[in-house]
């Protein structure tokens, strides 16, 4: 992406703020809008952005990035059609595409492509933004019906400038796969912390080791964002929960019946992790 191009970001939270920080550091003129005036003031004061939408020069090339909750993103698209249509590139960063992929407007334009940087953590807000958040991370690019090759190339260059490695994935596969690899782990983490909180005999912090802290780190994630994701990707998440329950039942039966079966179950899990993640 050329440094002369302007970038307009809607939403300066953890992801949007990190995009702004990284691009601004590269010398790109970044402008932003956010519901929080305090966030905008902070971003301008700390030179994370150059200004707001009103400062954007619409006579010169610009790209638009929506980094807002999925439901908000769809609403913003419908409210900013001319802005998006006249942009060099439009993309967004939501974890669930179920709502936005059905938007009639963006399915009729060539400059729109959906993105999902697999880079977030439990942090929220601009205070959690990080210039290196996307380095060596995967960013999924999902073209729409009319997305041009030029728009796909521009989106790839944008994310590569942030340090990401891009892969293409169709939208149906995206929500199905992410339900298992991202959304389900959050479901489990949220549920486990509730179980521990309700179990009075295991509340002693001294007895909570590193394993529990690492595993439940994501239970500190933003409730607003994740309730949206669970609602929008409901079907695929419920299918993942159903599959996980079956594996949990197998483990329960193994513990009840046989040490060797339990050992084999754990060994199979070890092999799966090495194959898929390590």
Please describe what this structure looks like.
With 278 residues, this protein is an alpha/beta fold. It has 2 domains: 6-169, 3-Layer(aba) Sandwich (Rossmann fold); 174-276, 6-phosphogluconate dehydrogenase C-terminal like domain (6-phosphogluconate dehydrogenase C-terminal fold). It has 10 helices and 7 strands. It has helices spanning 14-25, 37-45, 70-79, 81-85, 149-161, 171-198, 210-215, 223-232, 234-257, 259-276; strands at 6-10, 30-33, 62-66, 89-92, 113-117, 138-143, 165-168. The model has no long low-confidence stretch (mean pLDDT 91).
Summarize this structure as a short list of keywords or feature phrases.
four-stranded parallel β-sheet; Rossmann fold; three-stranded mixed β-sheet; globular
CATH topology of the largest domain, anyone?
A: Rossmann fold
Helix content: 40-55%
Structural classification: alpha/beta
Shape type: globular
The main β sheet shows up as: 4 strands, parallel
Q: How do the SSEs run, as a string of H and E? A: EHEHEHHEEEHEHHHHH
Quick check: average pLDDT? 91
Number of helices, counting only DSSP H or I runs of 4 residues or more: 10
* CATH-derived architecture of the largest domain: 3-Layer(aba) Sandwich
Q: What portion of residues belong to β-strands?
A: 5-15%
Output the strand order for the largest sheet.
Answer: 2-1-3-4
Q: Tally the structural domains.
A: 2
Count of strand segments: 7
Distance between the termini: 32 Å
What would CATH call the homologous superfamily of the largest domain? NAD(P)-binding Rossmann-like Domain
Unreliable residue runs: none
Question: What radius of gyration results from the CA coordinates?
Answer: 21 Å
């Amino acid at each position: 992406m050329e440094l002369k191009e302007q970038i307009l970001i809607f939403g300066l939270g953890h992801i949007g703020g990190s995009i702004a920080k990284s691009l601004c550091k590269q010398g790109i003129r970044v402008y932003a809008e956010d519901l929080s005036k305090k966030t905008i003031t902070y971003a301008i004061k700390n030179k994370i952005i150059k200004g707001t939408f009103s400062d954007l020069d619409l006579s010169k090339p610009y790209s638009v990035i929506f980094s807002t909750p999925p439901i908000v993103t769809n609403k913003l698209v419908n409210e900013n059609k001319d802005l998006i249509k006249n942009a060099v590139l439009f993309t967004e960063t939501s974890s669930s595409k179920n709502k936005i992929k059905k938007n009639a407007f963006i399915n009729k334009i060539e400059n729109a492509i959906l993105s999902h940087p697999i880079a977030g953590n439990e942090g929220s807000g601009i205070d959690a933004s990080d210039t290196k958040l996307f380095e060596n991370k995967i960013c999924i690019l999902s073209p729409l019906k009319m997305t041009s090759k030029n728009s796909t190339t521009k989106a790839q260059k944008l994310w590569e400038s942030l340090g990401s490695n891009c892969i293409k994935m169709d939208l149906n596969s995206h929500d199905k796969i992410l339900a298992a690899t991202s959304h389900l782990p959050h479901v489990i983490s949220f549920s486990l912390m509730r179980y521990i909180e309700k179990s009075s005999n295991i509340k002693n912090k001294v007895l909570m080791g590193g394993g529990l802290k690492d595993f439940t780190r994501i239970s500190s994630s933003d409730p607003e964002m994740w309730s949206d994701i669970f609602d929008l990707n409901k079907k695929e998440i419920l299918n993942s929960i159903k599959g996980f329950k079956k594996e949990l039942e197998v483990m329960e039966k193994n513990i009840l019946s046989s040490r060797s079966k339990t050992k084999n179950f754990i060994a199979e899990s070890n092999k799966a992790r090495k194959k898929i993640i390590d």
